[in-house]
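Renewal narrative, Specific Aim 1. Our central claim is that a sequence can be written position by position from structural information alone. The example that follows is taken directly from our test logs and has not been curated for this report. It begins with the structure tokens describing the chain, in the order in which they were read.
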């Protein structure tokens, strides 16, 4: 049984195309109110994962649960809980915005009497109120993307899945779509696939990095992975042995000019203790800096040609 706070859970998702494995043993959970970023280089398996999560592609192995319903055994009811925007917006260019959204409302089973309100609400949330009568094919790509978002939320699903939602947009359109997705995150849980690091940082609260079909990293966007050492600079340093005896310090390396690198135990943060000792012992504190990797550094390490070794090193640091 899946926790009621978990809206999507994927267990052991694997997809093979002949001898090629596009996604391998992927596990994923999306909690209520989360915006989860699926980050990886082109060809990492992100779109294949999104298609399996939304029931558009059957996994070779594994299973997906949406609000406690199996996507394999109870597909219709499970898919009712989803809104999906693929990389290419599924719009009909010959229809007006209103015509298309009314059609989508019908596909999602919204009663005829409620469709006008559903269309108006989706247009309002996606900034389309002024273009309802415009033909979709005459709209800019940014507005067509908004129409794609509107069809994904018109039935007010708890989960919205977005695959590369800003591909092909200009910088102004990208900013507008990102702001729109953040607004959607107030009322929907969102999975966002992207190969753009800044996009994930700007929108998401949690990031999963996928490389070669495998999840190699899963943590909050602002997690301080790698913060297991700090640099200490002193004008009148004590013996290195005195620093090694401080609680939470598991190693001391002398650098130069009164500087030390202190290796820390998991979860330890002795900065306040060090400041107090420096004042008490008249050490002349000059520098106290926690060492941490940025998300960009982690991404580069995990998706480089030596990704397997880098992934192992990062996961060991995070343990």
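The sequence written for that structure reads:
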């Amino acid at each position: 049984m899946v926790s009621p706070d978990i809206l999507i859970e994927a267990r052991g998702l694997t997809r093979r195309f002949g001898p090629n494995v596009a996604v391998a043993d992927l596990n994923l959970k999306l909690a209520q109110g989360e915006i989860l970023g699926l980050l990886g280089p082109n060809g990492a398996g992100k779109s294949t994962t999104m298609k399996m999560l939304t029931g558009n592609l059957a996994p070779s192995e594994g299973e997906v649960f949406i609000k406690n319903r199996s996507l394999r055994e109870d597909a219709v009811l499970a898919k009712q809980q989803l809104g999906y925007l693929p990389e290419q917006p599924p719009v009909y260019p010959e229809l007006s915005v209103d015509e298309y959204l009314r059609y989508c409302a019908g596909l999602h089973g919204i009663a005829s009497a409620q469709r006008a309100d559903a269309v108006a609400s989706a247009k309002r949330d996606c900034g389309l109120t002024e273009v309802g009568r415009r033909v979709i094919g005459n709209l800019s790509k940014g507005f067509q993307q908004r129409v794609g978002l509107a069809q994904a939320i018109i039935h007010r699903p708890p989960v919205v899945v977005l695959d590369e939602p800003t591909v092909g947009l200009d910088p102004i359109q990208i900013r507008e779509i990102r702001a729109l997705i953040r607004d959607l995150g107030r009322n929907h849980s969102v999975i966002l696939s992207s190969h753009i690091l800044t996009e994930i940082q700007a929108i998401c609260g949690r990031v999963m990095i996928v490389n070669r079909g495998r999840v190699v990293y899963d943590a909050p966007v602002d997690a301080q992975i790698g913060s297991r050492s700090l640099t200490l600079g002193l004008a009148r340093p004590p013996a290195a042995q005195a620093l090694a005896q401080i609680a939470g310090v598991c190693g001391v390396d002398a650098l130069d000019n009164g500087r030390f690198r202190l290796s820390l135990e998991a979860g330890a943060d002795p900065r306040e203790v060090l400041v107090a000792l420096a004042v008490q012992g008249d050490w002349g504190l000059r520098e106290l800096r926690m060492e941490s990797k940025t998300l960009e550094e982690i991404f580069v390490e995990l998706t480089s040609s030596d990704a397997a070794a880098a992934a192992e090193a990062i996961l060991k640091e995070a343990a």
